[in-house]
Amino acid sequence: MSRTALILRNLIGFTRGSDRFDANDVWHFVHHCLMPHSKMRGVMTVDQYLAMAREIGRRAADGLPGTYTKERDNGEILVYWEPGPEKEGLFMAVAPIGTQGEIKTLFQPEDGKRYFDDQPVNGFRILH
Predict the structure, then answer these.
(1) Are 9 and 57 in contact (CB under 8 A)?
(2) Domains of the chain: which residue ranges?
(3) Is 3 helix (H, G, I), strand (E, B) or coil?
(4) pLDDT (0 to 100) of residue 78
């Protein structure tokens, strides 16, 4: 298993830069920082959000159809997942912490996969 796949299979929580969050901070981060900037509306618990991120990470680690992955020179991993033609995709950025990953962001971009495609390619390795 590649290092990137290992990290995507081992998402341990959320981060913002070098700051880690406790449970109350995570709720605030999910509901006030991430969701307002995406099309993800409605009530979602932190556990549901983390479960969704882990599922996307697993799919990307397995190279399943509909997943796209880029890795920055600093090791940060970007993932885009298209669940199907009738559903809108999700963008996720993961910071590596050894062989684990912390979710920096996960949201449904307004412009779909174009958001992922428009991320700078300099300093990236396209993984699949």
Answers:
(1) yes
(2) 3-126
(3) helix
(4) 94
Look up residue 16 and give its amino acid.
R
> How far, in Å, CA of 115 to CA of 9, rounded?
23
Compute the distance between CA of residue 63 and CA of residue 123 in angstroms, rounded to an integer.
Answer: 21
Work out the burial of residue 128: count CB atoms within 10 Å of its CB; fewer than 13 is exposed, 13-18 middle, 19 or more buried: exposed
CA distance 14 to 28: 12
Per-residue pLDDT of 73-112, as tens digits, reads 788 899 999 987 777 889 999 999 889 998 888 888 888 8
Taking 80 as the threshold, does the pLDDT of residue 27 lie above it? no
Would you say how long the chain is, in residues? 128
The identity of residue 82, as a single letter, is: E
pTM above 0.85, yes or no: no
